[in-house]
Specification:
- Helix 4 packs across helix 5.
- By secondary structure, the chain is α/β, with parallel strands linked by helices.
- The protein has six helices and five strands.
- Helix 5 links the parallel strand 4 and strand 5.
């Protein structure tokens, strides 16, 4: 994937985070769109511990393999594991500022959530803009899990 920077301005650094368990086309479309809007895309993968704590589920694919899968995508430039819930606003802001990034890409299905009513202004205060990207309706890891459970009953 081509960088959008022509060299006349500093690179725009973007980032996003997610579970990325059972990587699917919705994830791919989101990441490709995010990458088209920045020059360098960092992706944070929720740790196995964080997913068990915050989503109350055991990941199907462990964190190291999820990182490896994401590193294999041409639209992703950097991948790391994160272990901080976005509901921990101060710690999450500190984590994202340490990357560093200029823009934080968020799926629009989170718009209006209490988490982002708190997080978005805190990030903006530090110079990080939230950019909302479309959610791929009808495709989710939760749906895939439900289909697998239903098919194996």
């Amino acid at each position: 994937m081509m960088a959008r920077n022509t060299g006349k301005q500093p690179p725009r650094l973007g980032g996003t985070i997610g579970a990325f368990d059972m990587l699917h086309v919705g994830h791919l479309r989101f990441l490709q769109l995010a990458r088209s809007r920045c020059d360098f895309l960092r992706v944070g993968v929720g740790s196995d511990r964080l997913l068990q704590h915050s989503k109350h589920l055991k990941p199907v694919i462990d964190e190291q393999q999820r990182c490896e899968l994401l590193r294999g995508l041409s639209c992703v430039n950097d991948v790391l594991v994160f272990d901080i819930g976005l509901d921990q606003t101060d710690a999450a802001v500190d984590f994202l500022c340490a990357w560093p990034i200029h823009v934080f890409f968020v799926s629009e299905d989170w718009a209006g959530s209490q988490r982002f009513k708190t997080l978005e202004p805190a990030l903006l205060e530090k110079g990080i803009v939230c950019e909302w990207l479309p959610y791929t309706a009808g495709i989710s890891s939760s749906d895939i899990r439900q289909r697998l459970e239903r098919d194996h009953q």
